[in-house]
Structure prediction request, 114 residues.
Amino acid sequence: MTQPTITLDDLMALKPCDPDRRAALFVGHKALTARQALALGASLADVLWVLAKLGHKRQCVQFALRCAQSVAHLNTDPRVQAALDATQAWLDAPSEQTAAASDAAYAAYAAAYA
Prediction:
């Protein structure tokens, strides 16, 4: 299976923050796969942001949810589970309503964490 790649021009069209740092990853490369970008120092958050912008939002949310679920037991704040449940609800039935609930649950958790 061929992995999707992105060129520097394609990345810049997405308007990333700190474009100079992102462009530096492409020195000596015409295009990068996610694996290559990670090996060159891109963060996982950067790679997921690009993949979501390229139409893979659902897969990115699924991945992030699985990661969060695997460590949720470390934080017993009920807002953590509420955010996970709301995100799962969006995955089960994507809609503006479930997206808003997921966003609100995450915002509540982030505010409590801060």
